[in-house]
Amino acid sequence: MVYYILGAVVASLLGLLFLKISIGKKKSGASSMEAQSTDSVMGRSGNGSTDTDIVIVGAGVAGAALAYTLGKVEIPSCFVGLILEKCELPYKNHGHVILADPSPILFYPISSTEIRCLVDVPGQRVPSISNGEMNHYLKTVIAPQIPSELLSAFMVAIEKGHIRTMTNRSMPATPQPTPGALLLGDAFNMRHPLTGGGMTVALSDIVVLRDLLRPLRDLNDAPALCKYLESFYTLRKPVASTINTLAGALYKVFCASPDPSRKEMRQACFDYLSLGGDFTNGPIALLSGLNPRPLSLVTHFFAVAIYGVGRLLLPFPSPKRMLIGARLISVRISAACNFNSYTVNQFK
Q1: What residues does the Squalene epoxidase domain cover (predicted)?
Q2: Omega before residue 315 within 30° of 0, cis
Q3: Shortest CA distance to 171 belongs to which of 156, 185, 161, 160?
């Protein structure tokens, strides 16, 4: 982990040095270099020379320097990644989310013979790989919760030792109006990757930006262009805020807890998604960005709560179940407050 941090710092410093050198050069020489090293939208100026009219920064944040400078970054958990070989998922060609303890485990195919496994570890630190703590954790805590179809391949992957770790970051979208530049992707907005919403949001942002830039013929007036692109931050909100909010809410619900009411809410959410019809299609449409309506998100949010309480009180409520139901409502009200606060932050 120390080597990753040192590497990130060195990469960030080299990047800043490269940027300083690039800015000091003439535009004619810099434009060709920028075309190879940055994601840019190239335009043609009035005198016939090719210049960079707007630089689009959409890189990931391996070094985290840019993200930590621009916004409030949270690290809810880390992923431990392995590649499983020569095995089959319980449901072929589908992604799988295992509601494990202490937090979810993801499986999804990446080729005809390989399956990626991502073990979520809450907090900002993971067991050490170098001293064997990681192997011990995966074998004793995680392995007993792995589906039987994947267990043998999971153990083989551990023994091979090709284990990778990454931090999961969350950062609300904070507009950074800058003449001549625009942030996209993880440089601008991050959410927990449990639902795989990062690429969906990034591609949606690209479509919004494309539609805004399409009617323009002159991108040379950087201040005017910056003012014009302020609408980008408003137009992206329905899709981005819905996926961001759902990713954060589902991660909290799917994490294990000793609280009986939280356990009941976790099971209620799982059973709700298993009902089929609109109970399944609705949340899936939200996750995929096909139905970017915050009102639909709110509807399903409270529907899960009502469903969970109903399961406890029917057919005959007992004092214990009524107590859990009351606690569940309390937890859901608290979650609703956080939900509203988070949604407001997303829509600012």
Answers
A1: 72-320
A2: yes
A3: 185
